[in-house]
């Protein structure tokens, strides 16, 4: 999935372009292809606008079920000073899952997620921070998709969050 969203200066923002790429790959192996390796890569950038002048809802955060499980929702951004955390102009997310069918309807999953948010337009690691999380989950296949239950913990985090996060949903996480 690729998205390009231009924005124009109408009220206190700059002109620019928000780009986002989300790609996924799956490889099944073993007898009856009961084991699947799933990989997801996310890349985002806000070009043409300074961080302070970009529309707030076009900036990137990381953390939570859509990016890094085990981290609080949108817990990673850019420290804009005095503890004010806002979204960043760049984002990089990498996720891996190993899914193993244990029966006709039940699967177990192990996963590791990694996220980066920075103030630079392209995520080159020069101005942002990384965080990561890992965990295990179970899937129960239904007619509309698997019911998902994941437990995750933070592995690397700027805020040293040591809690356990619980995610429940329908469908695979990616």
Which helices and strands, and how do they pair?
Layout: E1 2-7, E2 16-29, E3 35-47, E4 78-79, E5 85-86, E6 90-101, E7 106-118, E8 129-142, E9 145-156, E10 165-170
Antiparallel strand pairs: 1-2, 2-3, 3-6, 4-5, 6-7, 7-8, 8-9, 9-10
Task: Throw out a few tags for this protein.
174 residues, mainly beta, two-stranded antiparallel ribbon
Textual characterization of the structure:
- With 174 residues, the chain is mainly β.
- It has no helices and 10 strands.
- The protein has strands spanning 2-7, 16-29, 35-47, 78-79, 85-86, 90-101, 106-118, 129-142, 145-156, 165-170.
- It has an 8-stranded antiparallel sheet with strand order 1-2-3-6-7-8-9-10, with no helix packed on it. The protein has a two-stranded antiparallel sheet with strand order 4-5.
- A hairpin with a 5-residue loop joins strand 4 (78-79) and strand 5.
Short recap of the structure:
This protein is an all-beta fold.
Low-confidence stretches: none
Instruction: State the secondary-structure class.
Output: mainly beta
N-to-C CA distance: 12 Å
Task: Kindly provide the radius of gyration, computed on alpha-carbon positions and rounded to a whole number of angstroms.
Answer: 18 Å
| Main sheet properties | 8 strands, antiparallel
Strand content: over 45%
- Helix share bin: under 10%
What's the total helix number? Answer: 0
Shape: elongated
Strand order of the largest sheet: 1-2-3-6-7-8-9-10
- The total count of strands amounts to 10
Q: Helices and strands, in N-to-C order?
A: EEEEEEEEEE
Q: Roughly what is the average pLDDT, rounded to an integer?
A: 92
């Amino acid at each position: 999935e690729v998205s390009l969203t231009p924005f124009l200066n109408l009220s206190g923002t700059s002109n620019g372009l928000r780009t986002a790429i989300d790609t996924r790959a799956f490889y099944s192996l073993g007898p009856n292809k009961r084991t699947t390796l799933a990989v997801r890569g996310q890349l985002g950038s806000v070009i043409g606008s300074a961080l302070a002048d970009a529309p707030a809802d076009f900036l990137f955060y990381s953390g939570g079920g859509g990016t890094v499980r085990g981290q609080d929702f949108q817990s990673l951004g850019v420290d804009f000073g005095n503890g004010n955390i806002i979204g960043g102009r760049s984002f990089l997310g990498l996720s891996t899952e190993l899914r193993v069918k244990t029966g006709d309807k039940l699967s177990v999953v192990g996963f590791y997620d990694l996220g980066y948010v920075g103030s630079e337009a392209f995520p080159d690691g020069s101005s942002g921070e990384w965080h990561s999380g890992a965990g295990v989950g179970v899937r129960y296949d239904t007619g509309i998709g698997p019911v998902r239950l994941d437990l995750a913990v933070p592995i690397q985090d700027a805020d040293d969050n040591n809690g356990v996060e619980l995610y429940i949903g329908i469908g695979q996480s990616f």
